[in-house]
Amino acid sequence: MSERFDQGMIVRRRVLGDAHVNRAEANKTDFDEPFQTLITEAAWGSVWSRDTISPRERSMLTIALLAGLGNDHELAMHIRATANTGASKEDVLDALLHVAIYAGVPRANHAIKIAKETFAEMEAKR
């Protein structure tokens, strides 16, 4: 693997947690291995590894973009990741308020529902 892959895996584990990454790695097949390598190098090794903005800010941006695009499964995953990025519930709400204005109320409404469910699951596990 590349140096960018190694850096990406460090950041991916820091943001998403070892349990999530271990599951993804355990479920990896020959078919999706190139995709897993791509996201580890590109998303985590190239973008999330940059130090121009904080992990908290990057988390909020990611949540807003995922909500605005309707990527619900990824949205829940990144809301869970706020436990590792420092983004608070209030930060998530502010990001989703921006979604309402710039991407549409229905997208934000659905994302808020997902956020409430995800935060409740997170609190139940404490």
UniProtKB/TrEMBL annotation:
<dbReference type="Pfam" id="PF02627">
    <property type="entry name" value="CMD"/>
</dbReference>
<feature type="domain" description="Carboxymuconolactone decarboxylase-like">
    <location>
        <begin position="35"/>
        <end position="117"/>
    </location>
</feature>
<dbReference type="InterPro" id="IPR052512">
    <property type="entry name" value="4CMD/NDH-1_regulator"/>
</dbReference>
<dbReference type="InterPro" id="IPR029032">
    <property type="entry name" value="AhpD-like"/>
</dbReference>
<dbReference type="InterPro" id="IPR012788">
    <property type="entry name" value="Decarb_PcaC"/>
</dbReference>
<dbReference type="GO" id="GO:0047575">
    <property type="term" value="F:4-carboxymuconolactone decarboxylase activity"/>
</dbReference>
<protein>
    <submittedName>
        <fullName>4-carboxymuconolactone decarboxylase</fullName>
        <ecNumber>4.1.1.44</ecNumber>
    </submittedName>
</protein>
<dbReference type="GO" id="GO:0051920">
    <property type="term" value="F:peroxiredoxin activity"/>
</dbReference>
<dbReference type="InterPro" id="IPR003779">
    <property type="entry name" value="CMD-like"/>
</dbReference>
<keyword id="KW-0456">Lyase</keyword>
